[in-house]
Amino acid sequence: MLKVLLNGCNGKMGQVVSKVAKTYEDVTIVAGVDLNTTRNFDYPVYSNPSQIQEEFDVIIDFSLPEATLAILEFAKAKKKPIVIATTGFTSEQKEKIVESSKEIPVFWSANMSLGVNLVADLVQKAYKTLGSRFDIEIVEKHHNQKIDAPSGTALMLADAINEVANNAYEYIYDRHTRRKKRAQNEIGIFSVRGGTIVGEHSVIFAGPDEIIEIKHTALSKEVFANGSIRAAMFIKDKKPGIYNMSDLINSM
Ligand SMILES: NC(=O)C1=CN([C@@H]2O[C@H](COP(=O)(O)OP(=O)(O)OC[C@H]3O[C@@H](n4cnc5c(N)ncnc54)[C@H](OP(=O)(O)O)[C@@H]3O)[C@@H](O)[C@H]2O)C=CC1
Ligand SMILES: O=C(O)C1=N[C@H](C(=O)O)C[C@H](O)C1
């Protein structure tokens, strides 16, 4: 039985992970951490990791950057693996996560769906084929409760392109403050927020007289919850290091 500690258990994703975990015979959530501990949970919930008494194998984190950093310290102290799904980190926070992976296994992905990982491969292939003759723009759409912008996935896809482009691209967020033509070395990134949109990402390659659009649409939060549970199973017995969806998919 895989024993999970769920950080951010009262959030939108935390609640979906709690529900989805029940469909796995060999997974159980033994405790949660969140600011609000008053709701009725199937497991004990604490406002501070230091209060946790339960034994656990792995942490799943869908919270806020500051809360992730706090649970990361706890994970290191307990020498336990962690699955980080939270987005919106600063560069300094990202460095701390990378540094922590020298001590514990860290599964880190801004998007826990299998499909977005394929999109990352496809945009790299598109860049290699189309090269710099096509302008690249990314549009992401999410629900009206999302705090961070752009989405972690939009940045992940831009980074995937930059990885095969020798970091040639600069990211431009919205264009309303710029009254000039776009430069060739830009990736424009745009965020739409509204209603209950679960998550859409379009990478547009616009060239002379033709456009290629590579798009992923998440239809439910369950897709992310299932991915995070699979990630927890995958990382349980791994050595310290950084792991992502590619590692998980390659192991399947
Ligand atoms: N990688 C992926 O596939 C996905 C990633 N995400 C990311 O996951 C994160 C959470 O998303 P979502 O569930 O929609 O957001 P929510 O705001 O609904 O959930 C975050 C939860 O964390 C709680 N929280 C705040 N501070 C702490 C703390 N110190 N310790 C523990 N919990 C705390 C919040 O409490 P309170 O509301 O009281 O502040 C809230 O209950 C976001 O960064 C989002 O982008 C989301 C979906 C998929
Ligand atoms: O906040 C969300 O909901 C989501 N966040 C992730 C992100 O920022 O990329 C992943 C997914 O798109 C849903």
Automatic annotation (TrEMBL):
Pathway(s): Amino-acid biosynthesis; L-lysine biosynthesis via DAP pathway; (S)-tetrahydrodipicolinate from L-aspartate: step 4/4
Gene Ontology cellular component annotations, sorted alphabetically: cytosol
Catalysed reaction, written as an equation: (S)-2,3,4,5-tetrahydrodipicolinate + NAD(+) + H2O = (2S,4S)-4-hydroxy-2,3,4,5-tetrahydrodipicolinate + NADH + H(+); (S)-2,3,4,5-tetrahydrodipicolinate + NADP(+) + H2O = (2S,4S)-4-hydroxy-2,3,4,5-tetrahydrodipicolinate + NADPH + H(+)
Keywords on record: Amino-acid biosynthesis, Cytoplasm, Diaminopimelate biosynthesis, Lysine biosynthesis, NAD, NADP, Oxidoreductase
Primary subcellular site in the record, as a coarse category: cytoplasm
PROSITE patterns: DAPB (PS01298)
Domain Dihydrodipicolinate reductase N-terminal: 3-112
Record SUPFAM superfamilies: Glyceraldehyde-3-phosphate dehydrogenase-like, C-terminal domain, NAD(P)-binding Rossmann-fold domains
Residues binding NAD(+): G8, C9, N10, G11, K12, M13, D34, A85, T86, T87, S109, A110, N111, M112
Protein's UniProt keywords contain Methyltransferase: no
EC number(s) reported in the record: 1.17.1.8
GO BP terms, alphabetized: diaminopimelate biosynthetic process; lysine biosynthetic process via diaminopimelate
Pfam families: DapB_C (PF05173), DapB_N (PF01113)
GO molecular function: 4-hydroxy-tetrahydrodipicolinate reductase; NAD binding; NADP binding; oxidoreductase activity, acting on CH or CH2 groups, NAD or NADP as acceptor
Protein's UniProt keywords contain Acyltransferase: no
Enzyme class: oxidoreductase
Gene3D superfamilies hit by this protein: Dihydrodipicolinate Reductase, domain 2 (3.30.360.10), NAD(P)-binding Rossmann-like Domain (3.40.50.720)
Annotated family: Belongs to the DapB family.
Protein purpose: Catalyzes the conversion of 4-hydroxy-tetrahydrodipicolinate (HTPA) to tetrahydrodipicolinate.
NCBIfam families, sorted: dapB
Subunit structure, as described in the record: Homotetramer.
Protein name: 4-hydroxy-tetrahydrodipicolinate reductase
